[in-house]
Amino acid sequence: MNPQIPLIVQRYFDAWNQHDSAALVATFADGGTYADPASQGPLSDTAIGVYAEALWTAFPDLSFDLVSAAQDGDGMVSAEWLMRGTNHGSINGLPPTGAAVALPGADFIRIEGEKIRSVQGYFDSAALPRALGLDVIVQPRAIGPFSFGTSTRAATGTTAIPGAFSITWIEARSEEEKQKIMESGRKIATEMLAMPGFISWVGTIIGNRMTTITAWETPEATAQLMRGGEHREAVGRFFSNELGTNALTGVWVPGRINPRRQRCPECSRFLDAEKAQGKCGCGAALPEFPAYW
Prior knowledge:
By secondary structure, the protein is an alpha+beta fold. It has 3 domains: 7-131, Roll (Nuclear Transport Factor 2, Chain: A), CATH 3.10.450; 142-252, Alpha-Beta Plaits (2-Layer Sandwich), CATH 3.30.70.100; 258-293, no CATH class. The protein has helices at residues 7-18, 21-26, 46-58, 127-131, 175-192, 229-239, 273-276, and strands at residues 28-35, 43-44, 63-71, 76-86, 100-112, 115-123, 142-143, 146-147, 150-155, 164-171, 198-206, 209-216, 246-252, 261-263, 270-272. β5 (100-112) and β6 form a beta hairpin.
């Protein structure tokens, strides 16, 4: 027991450390709220417990160490803490990294009688993804005719020349639906890695539109997508009104693919990689050339 804080605040932190969502919710007054940089606004009642359980799933050993605490005369408790945990569960649909984190932060807790009226938490919202080895990208949504987003690539490493590209885009109606489409896309990309003739996959997210461009060795290889698995199920969900509001899909066959070019690290000549076959005319060995797509 920390003598510098009220018993109800001690119970609040104990509930976090004991992973007891019912006990956590019970520390709040009726209509009491919890908010932090990741909660997307104030939460109340059972939503507080649901939010905590998601954190415990992502970090099964999550705990809070109180660094310091103080109470003023108006029922406000200021508590500085250090959150510790190891990422063994999914966060926002991403696979766990196994990384251990130590995230400093602070809670400002308003006490009303024997209950908590509100908790406003603060921490560096970019520190957690950085600790997990994730990139933190800050960019505008749009500038004039340009829109901005993120992208992902999955590849087998083959240097085969693409004989076809399958291109699909789908627009989501809500953030929740967007998350479902993203999760489906990750499953499809994972399944394609094992398909004969698959070369690589690029997925982009700009606003509510998600686009994939997949390189295949032959147009016929794309037919594997409709023989079963997540892709076929996702198509069914789209046509049954479960996913998306607009979509386009098709297979494009290249009209012309120019030779791959490679610069010699010794003489700086720009070479046709196929003709050079790993060696420049100056005698220098050329590094392995990356995949086409």
